Automatic annotation (TrEMBL), chain A:
All copies of domain Carrier, residue ranges: 11-90
Any Pfam family hit: PP-binding
Name by which UniProt lists this protein: Acyl carrier protein
Organism whose genome encodes this protein: Streptomyces vinaceus
InterPro entries tied to this protein: ACP-like_sf, PP-bd_ACP
From TrEMBL, chain B:
Region (Disordered): 369-394
Residue spans of biased composition, Basic and acidic residues class: 384-394
Species of origin: Streptomyces vinaceus
Name recorded for this polypeptide: Acyl-CoA dehydrogenase
GO molecular-function term, one example from the UniProt record: flavin adenine dinucleotide binding
Amino acid sequence: MAAPQTTTPRPHTPEEVTATVRQFISRLSGRTAIEDDRPLISDGVLDSVAAVQMVDFVERTFDVEIADEDLELANFDSIRGLAGLVNRRLAAS
Amino acid sequence: MTGPAPAALLAALRDDAFTARATAWERAGAVPRAAIDELAALGLLGLTVDTAHRGSGTPPAAVTDVHRLVAAASPSLHSLLVVHAMVCHAVRRWASAELRDALLPELATGRMLAAFALTEQQAGADTGALTTTIDRVGDTLRITGTKRWLSFGQIADAYLVFGSTDGRGSCALVDAGAGVRVAVEPVTAGLRAARLARVTFDGATAPASRAVGRPGIGIPFVVTSCLTLGRLYVAAGAVGVAEAALRLAADHAATRAHGGTTLGDRQLVRGLLADAALATDAAARYVRHTAQEIEDREPSAAVTAARAKLLASRAATTATATASRLLGAAGQTEDHPLARLHAAARVHEVIEGPTEVLQDIIAADLLRGRPGTTDRAPSPAAPYRKEDDHRAEH
Ligand SMILES: Cc1cc2nc3c(=O)[nH]c(=O)nc-3n(C[C@H](O)[C@H](O)[C@H](O)COP(=O)(O)OP(=O)(O)OC[C@H]3O[C@@H](n4cnc5c(N)ncnc54)[C@H](O)[C@@H]3O)c2cc1C
């Protein structure tokens, strides 16, 4: 019989969330150093395909659901904004 | 909850009678609503909808198998599956819970047929140029603008309309009826029976609850996520077309006698068949891989879907060109099944992002962040602008 499934621990502290988001955005944009407040979408760091990928990534990685009312540019336009959204969602669940 | 594609549906699509009916639709230049209703009763339109909303919750890879079957016989009917699935996705992913619960069962059962209304005269691949407006006045949306080349727009009950609200990209599901004028588009060579319409919204109204995503979100998020799925499904259809053309070519090459031998014994012919077979098989495998990425919600899925559509539509172009050569005169007649496959392959290279637009997306993904490349983002959908941020309203 297989051993009981262990689930990968999810990054949950606010610092872990920010670090995970920062790493993902860096991979998605192909840039190594992006400041946490740098506008991602309005500055063209990410295009719209990447923007949609970001929503999928956040939902999957942190097991949160982004609701219609979360879809404000401010929540997606910087590493700080995105990490803040995830932390609010995690706190609410 | 997920399950396989309904068995009765698969049986109906694999029946020779389905191919015969598809031929009749192509001749008539229209898939009739009655035929759609019949197949919808078997679950054709609810594949991508979960069981709680009266769909079959079929996983994406199994859905692409159905798309292959349908497109091999009727590329026209296949385009309905594509646009309908995109609308179902937009409602499921981006609409309010109330709208989702009210409309998904209608869409899944085919009681409501929906068209995807993006293209305009001056805005095809370039969605940044949309001129349709979706104004909000109190609790009512007022839609003004003209959409072109809408698959099944002639008989749709509702349209997923993309436009702008106060200058911000937006989207709403609008019922056919008052204020919505439907004109028949000229018949295209490919997808002849897809009931293409030019639809004018002349101050048509919809309740504000019919908005899908908020202004500023409707274009980049809703369009892009719909197009990802649309690209997967067009790719699957293109694989079906390529497989059907390859079957015609191989059957013909194996049996057509030529100077005491068969066509298939000739080396040059074997080379053509091998190239077409490999292109088709590679595309089929890539489509399954893409379906899995989408199911797993891999962040790379949007680009992978663009790659799949490019690869598969080209495979269909290669396979249909090969079949067209090998079949000789017989393959050139208007009524031959090859005619519809050949023309469908040409359309597949245009819809849901033309080949060049997909190349741009794929190359941008490849080059992103490399030194020496411009950081220009591709624009499969309108970019965000700073003004799209309307935190202040909330
Ligand atoms: C059978 C059929 C069904 C359709 N169904 C629908 C539907 O249901 N809903 C809907 O909204 N629309 C539909 N369309 C419209 C379709 O989506 C558009 O035709 C497509 O987006 C291309 O737009 P266009 O025709 O305006 O061509 P354009 O955007 O003018 O492009 C023409 C060509 O220019 C080249 N090109 C365009 N952009 C670029 C670029 N950035 N870089 C390099 N080259 C480029 C490509 O070769 C392209 O094929 C349908 C079209 C057909 C033929």
